[in-house]
Amino acid sequence: MNKPLTDFSRAWRWRQLASPPVFYQWAGRVWPWLAGLALLLAAAGLWVGFLLAPTDSQQGEVYRIIFLHVPAAWMSMFIYLVAALHAGLGLVYKTRLSPLLARALAPTGAVFTVIALWTGAAWGKPTWGAWWVWDARLTSELILLFLYLGYLGVVSAIEDSQRADSAGAIVLLAGVVNIPIIYFSVQWWSTLHQGATIRWDAAPSMTHSMLAGMLLMALACWAYSLAVALVRTRCLILERAQEERL
Amino acid sequence: MLKAVCLREVRLAARRPADALSGLVFFVMVGSLFPLALGPDSALLRQIAPGVMWVAALLAVLLGQHRLFESDWADGSLEQWVLAQAALPLLVGIKVAAQWLIAVLPLLIAAPLLGWQYGMDNASIAVLLAALALGTPSLSLLAALGAALTLGLRGQLLLTLVVLPLSIPILIFGSHAVTQAQLGLAAEPALSLLGACLCLALLVTPWAIAQALRLALE
Amino acid sequence: MQNHAFFIALAYGLGALALVAEMLWLWRRSQSALARAQEEGRP
After folding, report:
1. Quick check: A157 contacting B, CB < 8 Å?
2. Is the ipTM of this complex over 0.95?
């Protein structure tokens, strides 16, 4: 951390960020801005979602759960893909920072998966009459949660950091192969279970304010995830450096 | 060398009949538990049969799988394999195949018996066998991947946690195939999906297992 | 319509709780990592 960063004062050199000390400094400067951005976007999104968007003709007020549910679900998927990408890069190119990024992203992804499942249940009860149905979408999210937990379990159970990183990368990548298969089964399950639920995102007739609210919240979740991931990566850099010294 | 490995693996797997039998016994026991617990309502049993069979098969495959590489690791033959001229994924494939022959193939023999216990008709049982034949090798490969990743770690829970999400599509397609057969509908699409999963598993998992084993040996 | 507020509160309540919990956990983690780094910096 006390190494002179002679090149950093020059123009952005993204490749510099691959070095943990450089990344540490950069992330330390950037994350507060992202956190502030997340707060602003969330405030705007919730304001649009609750005050501007109209009441739904069929579902009433409870549809407003969408402003947390859909962004959380999107992030749960997106974070998984990004984490898998970094884990894969770390596995192939043996970069030092990539496995740390994957480890930093996974907990947030798991949290968003839980939020997506829970908000979905809270939405399902008043609209479908059931907290949970074995709908393909819900089941896919549940499987995604298991994938996250499997990855987190593996990296925490293996004591040797290098082995944990690589084993975790294999687990994460294996799960990526799984995801298109899971979404294919959506078609199969919808033929098995008749009376599929009314999908909000399938209907193009969403009013602009609803869409705006959703997008603002999605961006807020993205900024939040990035801020949290940067902070967690900083922690991991410190922890890893301590390990290497021991 | 490959032939020697083949013979060795089959002989080793056969020398531990307890492992092979325990999977079979577990499968039959779990399959028998449900009618005992849920009562003899035949319509209900027929309905849950596909799911129960598949869950029992999955659990039977996972049982004791974490010890798959342990003895080889302990006596040093795993390191020999990594250093050998033959490709490690191929050797791994042979090992898993031998394991499947000894430990999982008996399940296919027991499956019709369970099927009759659940009141399934013969056509459904035929589809069940086909589905199990296509699906259990993939499950074995996935379980072996879990075993390689968790080699040397204590406890079986982590292996199960890792393998379970990956095996869910096979569970879904396999169970779906049998349900379709019970309804008199075509089971071919689901069976071909199982076949596709098997192809994917054969392509990807031996390589991944080899990577995991190399990791474990470092 | 009345109990819709309950479900909205349920959804957003846990969502906020989960995110706050994550942030708290992370804050504690960074505090302990920094503390350990400073300890090692001295000797």
Report:
1. yes
2. no
In 3D space, the residue among A70, A75, A33 whose CA is nearest the CA of residue A221 turns out to be: A75
Nearest to C30 among A65, A224, A235 (CB): A235
Q: What single DSSP character describes residue A54?
A: P
Instruction: List, for residues B87-96, the tens digit of each pLDDT value.
Output: 889 889 988 9
- Chains A & B: contacts with CB separation below 8 Å: 67
Tell me the pLDDT band of A246, cut-offs 50, 70 and 90: confident
Chains touching A (at least 3 CB pairs under 8 A) are: B, C
Interface A:C, ≥3 CB–CB pairs < 8 Å: yes
Ranges of residues in chain C whose predicted pLDDT is under 50: 1
> Cα A157–A161–A162 angle (5° rounding)?
120
Cβ(A83)–Cβ(A106) below 8 Å: yes
Q: What are phi and psi of A94, to 5 degrees?
A: 55, 30
Q: How many whole angstroms separate alpha carbon A210 and alpha carbon A50? A: 9
Rounded to an integer, the average pLDDT of B158-184 is 90
Closest CA to A68 of A50, A92, A93: A50
Q: What tokens appear for A85 in the block?
A: 């990408």
Q: Which residues contact A56 (CB under 8 A, 6 or more apart)?
A: A63
For residues B136 and B157, the answer to whether their CB atoms sit within 8 Å is: no
pLDDT tens by residue, B125-143: 999 999 999 999 999 999 9
HEC string of chain B?
Answer: CHHHHHHHHHHHHHHCHHHHHHHHHHHHHHHHHHHHHHCCCHHHHHHHHHHHHHHHHHHHHHCCHHHCCHHHHHHCHHHHHHHCCCCHHHHHHHHHHHHHHHHHHHHHHHHHHHHHHCCCCHHHHHHHHHHHHHHHHHHHHHHHHHHHHCCCCCCCHHHHHHHHHHHHHHHHHHHHHHHHHHCCCCCHHHHHHHHHHHHHHHHHHHHHHHHHHHHHHC
Q: What is the percentage of chain A residues whose pLDDT exceeds 70?
A: 84
**B29: CB partners within 8 A, 6+ apart:** none
Whole-prediction pTM? 0.86
Q: N- to C-terminal Cα distance for chain A?
A: 17
The mean pLDDT of A90-118, rounded to a whole number, is: 95
Cβ atoms A34, A227 nearer than 8 A = yes
Query: Are the Cβ atoms of A238 and C12 closer than 8 angstroms?
Result: no
Partners of C22 on chain A (C-beta within 8 Å) are: 107-108, 111, 228
